[in-house]
Amino acid sequence: MNNENFEKEIKFPDGFLWGTSTSAYQIEGGITNDWSEWEKSEGRSKKLEKKGKNPKDYICGKACDSYNRYKEDLDLAVSLNSNSIRIGIEWARIQPKKDVWDVEAINHYRDVLQEAKKRNLKTVVTLWHWTNPVWLAREGGWTKKSAVEHYLKYVDLIIENLGGNIDFWVTLNEPMLFANYSYFLGYFPPNKHSFFKFKKATNNLIKAHIKAYEKIHNFFPNANVSITNLSNYFEPARKWFAPEQLFKKIVAYYGINKFFNKINNYIDFIGVDYYRRINLSLIPPFIKRDKDNITDMGWEIFPEGLFYVLKELSKYKKPIYILENGLADESDKKRMQFIKDHLYYVHKAISEGIDVRGYFYWSLLDNFEWDKGWSPKFGLFAVDRDTFERKKRPSADFYAEICRSNSIK
Ligand code: BGC
């Protein structure tokens, strides 16, 4: 990024939402769901041991203990001068068994949302972030039509009990990634490799969103409802190679457009999660490894890609909120520049007329990074794995100044 870009102060529009993002399973702790069962399974442990890894580092367990420390976490969000927060609700807590609705869990989330409101934080609430109650997974999960009905009952309950304190509804987090990783590439539970199952799950998730959208709007006509989509920037590894260009087009269609095309009449905004550029190759493992300018996870830092993605998504003609953008960077040496450069391109998009209305850094805390376990550190605040003490990283102050001034200097 050229420093010339920052010669002048960059101002964001009034009312711009500044926040951080989290998800229930990755921070709360003490949850039993299909992921917690999978993490403990013999097959999973053996696979990790074979790779020379310690399975303990891949168990979510008590996570960041945020189920108990949510007030402290909300205070951290306030200390960042942010005016919003994205939090998640864990379906498996609310409905631990098919015929059991857990009143304590519902009351807990009511309190979380009220505490957020007390702190003047706008609430962006994710109803489903990949994890499922164990009973649902045993019934065949999202490959079965029944999942849609079950999900809608859960949505009804949220609407009636918690809806009044929800400003932005995210019915589903990155459904395409979930369908792909769980049913086609098999990285996530239930580790299937079936295009047929992938398609079934995708279709059921589309139906679930559309019906949830209608239900939420019946109850709250002015609600803001959408999904988030993982919208990374794809390029062919060899730009001159036509088959790779075609491969890129197919992947980008499934990755970025497919879901939005289907639900376009049932969204009030576009939720973007952007992390990296992905150079697609027809040579296995199909993604060209990046060597320079990478995060601790080896992901290429490519701020310009966010601009291209915003441009592409602007065709849906809806307000856009960036609901995740961040990096794994334990040393915190790259985080400030990362945030600054990405925001430069967000601002560029706004100045070209693209209706971007908010930016949420992923994540508030170092959290459980799914199949990658505990090693990636995405947080503006580090979390001690034994005491759960939160420790501010220097980049948190940098972000707090941006949120306070609504600008980058
Ligand atoms: C997911 C998060 C995850 C982040 C970093 C996003 O796609 O929604 O849950 O932690 O990526 O990998």
TrEMBL record:
The lineage of its organism: Bacteria, Candidatus Falkowiibacteriota. SUPFAM superfamilies: (Trans)glycosidases. The active site is at E324 (nucleophile). It comes from the Bacteria. The keyword Disulfide bond does not apply. Keywords: Glycosidase, Hydrolase. It comes from Candidatus Falkowbacteria bacterium GW2011_GWE1_38_31. Belongs to the glycosyl hydrolase 1 family. GO terms for biological process: carbohydrate metabolic process. GO terms for molecular function: beta-glucosidase activity. PANTHER family: GALACTOLIPID GALACTOSYLTRANSFERASE SFR2, CHLOROPLASTIC, GLYCOSYL HYDROLASE. This is Beta-glucosidase. InterPro entries: GH (IPR017853), GH_1_N_CS (IPR033132), Glyco_hydro_1 (IPR001360), Glyco_hydro_1_AS (IPR018120).
